[in-house]
Amino acid sequence: MNAPFLIAKGVTKRFGALTALSEVDLEIRSGEVLALLGDNGAGKSTFIKVLAGAHSPSDGELLIDGVPVTFSSPKDAASAGIATIFQELALSENLSISENVFLGRELKRSVLGVPFLRRKEMKERVAGLLKELEAHISDPEAPVGSLSGGQRQAVAICRALNLNAKLVIMDEPTAALAVAETRKVLSLTRRLAERGCAVVLISHNIADVFEVADRIIVFRRGRKVAEKIRSDTNPEEIVSYITGAHPDVRALEKAN
Amino acid sequence: MRQLKDGIFSLNGRELALLAACALAIIVFSVASPYFGTPGNAATILRNSVELLLIGLGMTLLLAMGGIDVSVGIVMGLAAIGVGRALGANTDPVLTALAGPIIGALLGFVTAAVVVLGRIPAIVGTLGLLGIYRTAIFILLGGQWLSGLPTGLTVLLGTSLLGVPIAAFVIVLAYIAVWVALRRTPFGLHLLAIGNSEEKARLSGIPVIKVRFATFIISGALAGLAATFYVASYRNVEMTIGSTLALDAIAAVVLGGTSILGGKCSLVGTVLGVLLLRILQNGLLLMGVPSLWQPVVTGGLLIGVLSVEVLSARLPMSQLGWARR
C-alpha cells in the first residue's frame, strides 16, 4: 500500500451540545477504496462534510501528504484535490456530457478578447475518459438528461477525474440504481482506485461494500468503532459492529 | 437521443412551424387586405420589429437563465429620453447613438443589483422597478413629449455601407454577438446551467452572481440600443413609450421555443416569434381591428402557447424533443 494521502487525527465535530463526531482517527490511501459504514446519524455524513470542506472540525486536524490543512470552504477542499460526488449529482441535465465534465473549468481560446470554447478538445478529452472508465457511453455530446442514473454517476466520476481529484468521495452512489447499473458503478469505483485515486465510499449496502472496498470503517454514535481489512472480516461481523451487538462495541460503550 | 447542431441560423421543428405560421399569416392577410401585401407595408413590419427583436434577444438570455425582466420596455423609454436629449442638443451622432446602450447597461446593472444582491425574485423586483421607472419617465419628460427632434441619428443609421444601411449591420451584429456569447463561450454554458438549477450551478463552481449580473446588463444594453433605433426613426419620445414591449418580448420569446422555466432557448425562434407577432399585429390593424386589441392578442397568444407546453410536458421526456437546449 502507498503512503496515506490523507490522515485525520482526533477529528471532532460538535453542534452546540451535540457531539456528531468524536475523536476520529483514520488514514485514506491512494489507490484504495475505503468504505465508511454506519447507521443513520452515526457520523459518516458529518465526517465526509469535514473532508469536503463543508464543515470545519471543532477539534483535531487533517493532514494531506503529511502537511496539516484547514478548509474554510468546499472550494479549498477541491483545490486540495478532494472531489465529492453528491447523492443528488450536481449535473446540469440540459447540457451535454462534455459540457458537464468541464463546467466551470472550460477549455477556451481567446480571440480578440472573447473566450471561445474549445469544444472539439473538450469532446475528445471526455471521449477518452469515458473510454478509459469503460463507461459504455458513445457520444459525449448527448445531453445528460437523456442518461440513466448509472451513466450519470459515470459522468460525475469523469468530472472528478478531469478536475485531477486525488480523493473522490462517493456518497451512496448506488442508492437509487437498478441491479445492472449498480454493478457498473461499482466497477467504475474500482477502476477509479486502480487509476491511483483514493476513494471513500459511503454506502448502506453491505454487499456492495464487500464487493469493492479494500478497507472498511464502521461509525457508531459519532465514533469509529471498527476498522477492518475486507479479507479479515465478514458481513455478519460488520453488521454486528453497526448495530452495536459486537462485544467490542459493547465494551467500548460501557466504558464511556 | 442526439441533439441537433445548434447552428447560427439552423431550424428545428418548432422553428419550422413558426416559419409556416408566418407564411400562413402573410397569405391570409394578403387575401383579406389589399394594403397588406405591399412592399411599403413589408418595410413597416420589419421597421416595427427592430426594437422588439433587440429586446427579445436580451429576454431570451434572461429566460434561459431562469430570470425575467418586465421593466425592459420602460428601460428603453428611459434610455430614449437620454438619446432624445442628446440628439436635441446636437451632440455628435455617434455619441448620441452610444448613449442608448450605455444608459441601458447602467439600468441593467441597477436591475441586477436589486434582483441578484437583494435576492428578490426577478419578476417581483423588475415589477417594482417598472413602477418606479414609469414615474421617472413622467418626471423627466415633465408631462410633455420630446418631439420634432433633429435628423442627425436618422441620417447616421441610414447611411449606406456597401449598399446596406448601417442600421442593418448593427442589428445583425447584435444577433451574432448574442449567439456567440450563448453558444460559443463559457458564459453561455454557465447561463444555461443556472437556468437548469442555480444550486447545481453553484456546486459546479460557476460564478453565479457574476453571470446573472452580466445577463441583466446585456439585456439592459440591448434595450438601450433599441432606444437608439426608436429615437432615430420616430424622432420623438412619448409618455407611454415602451409600455407594451415587455409583454410583446416575453410572448415572442416563448413563442420561439425558449422555456419560461429556464435552461433551454432558441435565438432563431426569437427572431421568428418577433416577426410572427408583428405580422399578426399589423395584419389585424389593416383588417380594421383597433390597436387597443393588440395586447389582448399578444397576451392570449402567450397564455395559449404556455398552456400547450404545460399539457405537452405531461408526455414522456423522449417526446418532448431534446433537440435544442
Automatic annotation (TrEMBL), chain A:
<dbReference type="InterPro" id="IPR027417">
    <property type="entry name" value="P-loop_NTPase"/>
</dbReference>
<keyword id="KW-0762">Sugar transport</keyword>
<keyword id="KW-0813">Transport</keyword>
<dbReference type="InterPro" id="IPR050107">
    <property type="entry name" value="ABC_carbohydrate_import_ATPase"/>
</dbReference>
<keyword id="KW-0547">Nucleotide-binding</keyword>
<dbReference type="GO" id="GO:0016887">
    <property type="term" value="F:ATP hydrolysis activity"/>
</dbReference>
<dbReference type="GO" id="GO:0005524">
    <property type="term" value="F:ATP binding"/>
</dbReference>
<feature type="domain" description="ABC transporter">
    <location>
        <begin position="6"/>
        <end position="246"/>
    </location>
</feature>
<dbReference type="InterPro" id="IPR017871">
    <property type="entry name" value="ABC_transporter-like_CS"/>
</dbReference>
<dbReference type="Pfam" id="PF00005">
    <property type="entry name" value="ABC_tran"/>
</dbReference>
<dbReference type="InterPro" id="IPR003439">
    <property type="entry name" value="ABC_transporter-like_ATP-bd"/>
</dbReference>
<protein>
    <submittedName>
        <fullName>ABC-type sugar transport system ATPase subunit</fullName>
    </submittedName>
</protein>
<dbReference type="InterPro" id="IPR003593">
    <property type="entry name" value="AAA+_ATPase"/>
</dbReference>
<keyword id="KW-0067">ATP-binding</keyword>
<comment type="similarity">
    <text>Belongs to the ABC transporter superfamily.</text>
</comment>
UniProtKB/TrEMBL annotation, chain B:
<dbReference type="Pfam" id="PF02653">
    <property type="entry name" value="BPD_transp_2"/>
</dbReference>
<feature type="transmembrane region" description="Helical">
    <location>
        <begin position="95"/>
        <end position="116"/>
    </location>
</feature>
<dbReference type="InterPro" id="IPR001851">
    <property type="entry name" value="ABC_transp_permease"/>
</dbReference>
<feature type="transmembrane region" description="Helical">
    <location>
        <begin position="57"/>
        <end position="83"/>
    </location>
</feature>
<feature type="transmembrane region" description="Helical">
    <location>
        <begin position="122"/>
        <end position="141"/>
    </location>
</feature>
<feature type="transmembrane region" description="Helical">
    <location>
        <begin position="213"/>
        <end position="233"/>
    </location>
</feature>
<dbReference type="GO" id="GO:0022857">
    <property type="term" value="F:transmembrane transporter activity"/>
</dbReference>
<keyword id="KW-0997">Cell inner membrane</keyword>
<keyword id="KW-0812">Transmembrane</keyword>
<dbReference type="GO" id="GO:0005886">
    <property type="term" value="C:plasma membrane"/>
</dbReference>
<feature type="transmembrane region" description="Helical">
    <location>
        <begin position="245"/>
        <end position="276"/>
    </location>
</feature>
<keyword id="KW-1003">Cell membrane</keyword>
<keyword id="KW-1133">Transmembrane helix</keyword>
<feature type="transmembrane region" description="Helical">
    <location>
        <begin position="296"/>
        <end position="315"/>
    </location>
</feature>
<comment type="function">
    <text>Part of the ABC transporter complex LsrABCD involved in autoinducer 2 (AI-2) import. Probably responsible for the translocation of the substrate across the membrane.</text>
</comment>
<comment type="subunit">
    <text>The complex is composed of two ATP-binding proteins (LsrA), two transmembrane proteins (LsrC and LsrD) and a solute-binding protein (LsrB).</text>
</comment>
<feature type="transmembrane region" description="Helical">
    <location>
        <begin position="153"/>
        <end position="182"/>
    </location>
</feature>
<feature type="transmembrane region" description="Helical">
    <location>
        <begin position="16"/>
        <end position="37"/>
    </location>
</feature>
<keyword id="KW-0813">Transport</keyword>
<keyword id="KW-0472">Membrane</keyword>
<protein>
    <recommendedName>
        <fullName>Autoinducer 2 import system permease protein LsrC</fullName>
    </recommendedName>
</protein>
